[in-house]
Amino acid sequence: MGLLDRLRPRRKDDAVADNTWLVVGLGNPGPQYAGNRHNVGQMVADELSARIGAAFKTHKTPSRVAEGFLGPGGPKLVIAKPNGYMNVSGGPVSALLKYYSVPVDRLIVIHDELDIPFDTVRLKQGGGHGGHNGIRDVSKATGAGPFTRVRVGIGRPPGRQDAADFVLKDFSGTERQALPNLLSDAADAVEAIVSEGIVAAQQRFHSPA
Prior knowledge:
It contains 8 helices and 7 strands. By secondary structure, the protein is α/β, with parallel strands linked by helices. The chain has one domain: Peptidyl-tRNA hydrolase (Rossmann fold, 3-Layer(aba) Sandwich). It has a 7-stranded mixed β-sheet with strand order 2-3-4-1-5-7-6, sandwiched between helices. Helix 3 crosses helix 7. The longest helix is centred in the last third of the chain and has 24 residues, at 173-196. It is globular. It starts with a helix and ends with a helix. Mean pLDDT is 89; it is low at 3-15.
């Protein structure tokens, strides 16, 4: 930043840009996938958009976007659901980061996680993709920067059921009863990351009940 930039009075738009977070819910497009375990990230995005009173709209990037503030005078949330399939999530996420001038360290990606028990939320910053195709593509597109992940546990498939088939099935009847609480917990986790930081949020959500 040059001297003139430092002396230039800051505009309101600058302050908003400095406190904007991109929150992306991963999933697959179309009603046939809407209730799948693999789409739980987009379900959490829906919960967040309802909380801030914002509706999803078409966008110049290949995503649907809802924008709003986390309380009066609070951080701005850009909540996005990519239009494409899970395994090509990186392009839309990269386009959104560029469009809103959001750095990777203010990117939060919400996704399903087989290695975490159902009804459990875990938070992670950076790290490997763990075989998750959506995270793999986002990492590749963003240069594997230290973005934050809200990992929503869906558990392992029972018996010998294939994991790929399991994630593309809807939640069971028993799971659907607990699902609203899980979505609420994951949305709370996003808000905690934005408001308190990743370390404080991890301490809160990783602590034994």
